[in-house]
Each structure stands twice: as structure tokens, then as C-alpha cells.
Amino acid sequence: MQSTARVFPDNAHRAMGDVNLQASLARFSQGFPVKRRLAIDRLPEFDSLRDAARDIKNHTLENLDFYLERFEEKVTENGGRVHWCADAESARQTVLSICRESGAHTVTKGKSMIGEEIGINEFLEEHSVAPIETDLGEYIIQLRHEPPSHIIAPAIHLSKEQVADSFREHHAEYPADRPLEEPRAMLDEARTVLRRKFLQAEVGITGANMLVAETGSIVLVTNEGNGDLTQTLPQVQIVIASLEKVVPTLEDASTILRLLARSATGQDLSVYTTFTTGPRRPEDLDGPPAFHVLLLDNGRSRMLGNEFREMLRCIRCGACINHCPIYGAIGGHAYGWVYSGPMGAVLIPNLIGVDEAGHLPNASTLCGRCEEVCPMRIPLPRMLRKLRDQQFEKKLSAKPVRWGLAGWAFVARRPALYQMVMQIGVAALAALGRKRGRFRWLPMASGWTGARDLPAPQGFTFQEMWSARGGRRQ
Amino acid sequence: MTDARTSMLAAVRAALGRERLPDTEAAVLQRRLDEPRSNIVPARGQPSPEERIDRFIFEAERVQATVVRLAGLEEVPDAVVRYLRVANMPSAVRIGDDAVMQAVPWHSEPLLETATGPAVDSDAASVTSAFAGVAETGTLILLSGPKSPTTLNFLPEAHLVVLPSERIVGSYEDAWQRLRGKLGNGRMPRVVNWITGPSRTADIEQTLLLGAHGPKRLQIMLVDGECPQ
What pLDDT does residue A358 have? Predict the structure, then answer.
């Protein structure tokens, strides 16, 4: 997928003026966070489970090579095949050659963020293979040629009227004047349309929530059951997963599963959690006879070796997104690439470069809610700050910003100078603003005063007042 | 492919700042895989034997499964017929063929059509047995096999599951232990399905709707008394 992260400020402004999107976001903010809270209240051990899950993932990452090799060994032992793909291009080529070998025309897909990351749908279409998304939200945005706006609720930005319009446009086999006001009617229609695709597809592609080294199983979590039809009905199953998805044992997977759905949708567990181990066995009556797992690096090994390693603990629950005030104001598309919210603001610059996505780490108030709710205890605000540092060091931010920061840093490192400058500044602002008590406009501060007034200071700096009251200094 | 594998593993090791793990350290990790240990199991997953069944029923009903309790397998055919009648569905089911299902006296309901084998699109209802029920979240665990095809769990609109009440365990960890007891460590059936309620979606304006792509209804028939292992 082509990134538009470079023009994030324009994207964000447009999003804030989009009436449909703002209505969807207003609905959204009342949903997941409330349900998550209720689910956690029913599980007193939630915080200790978070510690355990963090430790499991840290242990796995420290020994990632070992667990990947064990996982591969087990997949092979069970008759499946593992493909190692260093980047998106090699993953796309691998998927295509499997599709070609099996003579596939139609491919059903379970929702996969890795699929989005490598742009598999566009690529298959270019090569005359028709990919059909089967998760309802993902199907809707595929019809509309849009990227997902949320990692677990891809069509969260749309109203039901917009969905109905898309169905009328694309489901030509239905009468044009059929009633489609209610979500129920739309779901029933999608179920019927997609059921035919499920039965027709030669290849099924899904992502994986986890890979289990102990058994060579892939773990897939869905609510709709589309993932299971995708991985049961076709003759060939392809699983695309990034390296960091591996966990040691079934018990480790179970611990993480206790956190995943609760953090995501506020369910105790998603409806379907499926552990698949290899292809159809000799006596089996159904299931795909061919089973392929693609292990994708695409930037992960680089993150493993730098200060963003902890981001590889992410289980893609979306809790940080659901609790982010910036996401709540602009939605997911503004971020300009596959991911969004705080996890996206950390992941995107790491995967496609700070020079491409340098704006995103600034799309944060650093309020800390993301870290507070992260089930894997990823220090997202610290990472966002680190990316801002990088942006500054690489001279990627706008010149006025860099000069301003450099000037401030110069003064702030010299306490006597700092006090003098502050005293003059505060006294001057106090004198100027005495009459109104606030400023409607100030030079070089339009970013603040554009949307609100700046209260005028009262004439003394904090340090002056502290000294005046006899406060002690070290 | 071998090249990509080698270079990717090398990149991982370089990032970790070390070579391939020495055998002694690898052996420690291998033991972690060979003798899996439970992590924290919440109190909710450790009910006493008396609480176990009630907790399972409570949690399953919370996620919109329906539960009926039967005194023995001989009551299953009649319960299936009544369920289909109330749901206004045809009196025909695709059934699993494993030991539990074979022990059900289907002939006691001559008007109920039964067929075995993988499910087809026209099947409206299926009846299968569960390997375990997990009290913690009201979750059913179903295993694939020659006599329990996975399509039965997903294609029909109504899924009826026979769960011998003695198979209800507290936690997921308990279920893994039982499975290892049955198949041996490190071995899995091709598919293990955890099913927690009927299929659903909230992808249109966050309106929760049951019956997305999988079954619209999930009926659990909890059977007391003797059941084959």
C-alpha cells in the first residue's frame, strides 16, 4: 500500500472536517473502551496476566531464532511447509507462485494486517487472481477500494447508509429497491454472497494471531467464523505471519489469549479461537491438503536489534487505538498507512522510515493512556519520544521547529540565562495582557491561539514566587 | 528458499548480538517446550468440582449460547427434534460419527433424518460432540478427525453440541493437559476449535449481530451419566 503519512497534517485536517467520519468516531468512543473496562472488572488477575504475557514475549524475542526453528520443524513434521520471506516482495511472489501452482482463480481471505502490509490484494489482482475479503468489515472496504481504518474494526469509519450504498452498487444480482436500512439485512446479504465465494475459492489466505513452537500450530482468532471457512474449505491454505508472532507453548498462547479479546472488544474470548496444525490428514474428510506458512521479516529483525524491540510484543488488540484522543479526533486513514493510533505511530516509521512517516510520532499528546491500557505493557509514549528525537537528529522536522527547539535547549541548559529570559518574558507578557487578562493572538504562537486564548501571566515566574515565599533551593 | 532462511536467521541473531545458541542453552529451552508449564490461571478457571458445571452454563449463556441439560445420551435425539421444531427448521441433521455420537440411539426418532460425513452448504443443522467444555469462559473445545469433520462446526446455521458434563474442566490449561494425555506431548489434531457462543459481528456501526459466517445458533446439550471416552 502506498503511504500518505508524509502529508499527515493535511490528512488530519481533512478528517476533522469530514461529517460522516466525525459521526462514526463519536459512536466509536463510547464502544470498545467501556466494554474493555467491564471485562477487566470481571478478571481480578488481569494485571498479573499482563506481567506474565510481557515476560513470555520478552523471553521469546530473546530466543527468537530458536523458537522459529522449532516452529518450522513442527510444521514440516506435520506435513506443512514454511517459507521464509525477508521482505514484502518475496512474500507476494511466494503467495502468487503457490496460487499459480494450484491453478487458483479465486482466493478467499481472512482479515490480515500482514496482508495489508504487503499489499497482497492489489498484487494478486494485477496477476489475474481474485482475492475476496471475507471479514464483513474488510469486505465492505474492499468493495469501496479503501484501506482499513482500524486494525480490528476496519470499517469503523463508515455509516450504515454508506455500507448500504456499496452493497447496492456491487450486488447487482439483487433487486435495486430491496430494503437495506437495517444492519441485519446487510449482514444476511453479505453472508449469502460470501458463502458462494467460500465454496468457490481454490486457495484460502489468513493471517495468524500466534504461532506455537511446541506444536507447529497457528492460532487464528475471529468472531464471524470467516477465518475458519477460509482455512477449511479450499484445497490450499496459506498463512502469512510476521516473525514475532511465535510463542513457545500452548500454555503461553492461552495466557495471551486471556488478554487479547478483553483488550480488543471487551469479550472474554473471541467466538472462534482455532489452532491449526498442518494439512488434511490421510483419514480426514475435509480440510486443505496443502498447508503453507509464510514467515515474514519486513523490518522486524531490525526492530529486534534497536530500541524498539519491545514493540514486537504487540498482539494487535487495538486497545491503544481505542483509547487515543488523537485517533478519536481523526480516525485511522489520516495516518496514511496500514496501522494507526499509537501503535501505528511507532510501527509505521519503523517499517517504512522516519523520513517517510516523521509526522506520526507527533500525532500524540503523550497523555499515556496507550501505555496504561496496553496488555503487553509496551512503553508507547517513550517510543514516540524516541522517534521525535530521531526526527530532530536527522534534521527531518521543519526548520522553525528545529531552530525553536535548539534555541530553547540552549537557554534551558543555562539556568541563570533561563531565569533572566523568563523574567523578562513573563513581565512583558503580564504588562501587555494586564487589561484583558488573556491573549487572543500572539506572534509565533498561532498554533495555540488559533483555537483558544492564552491566559496572561501575572508578572512573576514560578522560581521568583518560590524564592519570595522562602522556598528552599538545592 | 534455504538462502532466505539462512539470511533471516542470521539477521535475527545479529540483532540479538550473538551466534546460534550453544547446545546447553538450547537444551534448557527445549525442556520448556517438552514439559510445558502453566502460567497464571485465574481463580475463575479453578472452580471446585461442584461449581464447575454451573460456572460453565453461566458463562456460555452470557455469550448467547443456549444450554439444555439431559440425563443421558438416550435423551439426545428427542432434544434435537424438539430444538429443530421450535426453531422452525427441517427435521434433518448432519452428525459426527465419533464414539459419543455413535452411542446416541438415533433410531428412537425415526422422523429425524441423520447423515454423516463432511457438511455441505445445504445442511441447516449439525450435531457434534465436544472434547471438553471450559468453565472459565463457557468455551467448547472440539477436535477434528476422520469422524469429526471441521465443516460441521461452521457451515450449518444451527450447531448443536453434545457435551458430557464430566468433560467440563476449569481452564484452558486443564484442557491442554487432557489433550496431551490423549495424544501425547507436542501432538495435535489437525484442528482444535475453541467455540465461545454463536458467530457474530459488529462491523456495521458497532451493532452486535449474531450469525455472521458461522452458525447463527449454538445449542449445548449437557449430558449427565455414562458417556464413552
Answer: 87
